[in-house]
Design goal:
167 residues; alpha+beta; two-stranded antiparallel ribbon; 4 helices; 46% helix; 20% strand
């Protein structure tokens, strides 16, 4: 009785190819999840009104006597400052980092305390609350990627397997 092992040899070759490309696949998945995270965190980052300079006083109309402002810069610097690093292998897993180098990013994320009654010239107002709640843009984005990322990676993994173990 003759046995045909050609399909078994083909499977062995495909498994070896799959093993060679698994690290590339894992790095690619880490980079894609980081990119999804970056898009989510940018979307959730609040945008300020911008920076203004007082150039005089309004002379007529309902705002007569109030300061006349000139816009110096557009808001959105915090949102534009997010960036990611490419995934690198660390032992058996890959790490991609998401950063925002703006010094006030942590205060916007987590909230901050402030002194009630303090006058802030740039706002033209006195502070009323002793704590400003954070926006939690990273926390919420991380939760979303954690929830939906598994299904995304699983789908991509099945595609990866089909590529090497097709029938």
């Amino acid at each position: 009785m003759k046995k045909n092992f050609s399909r078994l040899k083909e499977l062995k070759v495909n498994l070896e190819a799959l093993n060679e490309h698994k690290d590339l696949f894992m790095q690619q998945m880490a980079n894609e999840l980081a990119t999804i995270f970056l898009a989510e965190v940018r979307k959730r980052t609040p945008v300020g009104k911008g920076t203004f300079e007082v150039v005089g006083k309004i002379k007529r109309g309902k705002n007569k006597g109030k300061p006349k402002l000139k816009k110096i810069s557009q808001g959105g610097l915090l949102r534009k400052s997010w960036y990611i690093t490419k995934a690198i292998k660390h032992r058996d897993y890959y790490i991609a980092s998401i950063f925002n180098p703006m010094e006030y990013a942590a205060y916007v994320e987590n909230g901050h305390r402030q002194k009630v009654g303090r006058y802030v010239p740039i706002l033209g107002k006195r502070l009323k609350a002793n704590f400003v709640e954070g926006h939690h843009m990273m926390k919420l984005s991380a939760e979303l990627v954690e929830q939906e990322g598994y299904a995304y990676v699983q789908q991509r993994f099945y595609e990866f397997l089909r590529r090497y173990l097709h029938d």
